[in-house]
Write a structure and sequence with these properties.
Order of helices and strands: HEEEEEEEE
Oligomer: single chain
Number of strands: 8
Mean pLDDT: 84
Structural class: alpha+beta
Number of helices: 1
Largest sheet: 5 strands, antiparallel
CATH superfamily of the largest domain: Immunoglobulins
Length: 120
């Protein structure tokens, strides 16, 4: 009887550990899978310092640098975002600019507009 009891306890602990580990791994997998690659782009002259800032990076004006694509004549940056609605702006040589290609915008507390993107 005692050996059976020890085995049952060991099996229960192993199952509990596997379940806990599997659950957290599954949750992390869902979290990673839930993010979508979103590419931001803006036309600006070659040689400019261009960044994208928004709710997704705490409005840090230098957190996400955009790369110049000579063939297209624009700057791009890809950000992985979870489903939701995000406000953002471009920062071109230190000047904050709404996205001229995005009609979706909301007024901000600076008296200008923030562009809005919805990730599904």
């Amino acid at each position: 009887m005692k050996i059976k009891s020890i085995r049952k306890t060991a099996v229960k602990k192993a199952v509990a550990k596997k379940t806990a580990t599997g659950s957290s791994a599954k949750a992390a997998g869902r979290k990673a899978a839930a993010k979508k690659a979103v590419t931001f782009s803006v036309h600006a002259e070659k040689g400019k310092a261009v960044y994208v800032a928004g709710e997704f990076n705490a409005w840090n004006p230098t957190a996400k640098k955009m790369a110049y694509k000579a063939r297209a004549g624009l700057y791009t940056a890809t950000v992985r975002l979870a489903a939701g609605t995000y406000q953002y702006k471009f920062v071109i040589d230190g000047t904050w600019c709404a996205d001229p290609a995005n009609e979706n915008a909301v007024p901000n507390d600076q008296g200008t507009f923030n562009s809005v993107i919805e990730v599904r």
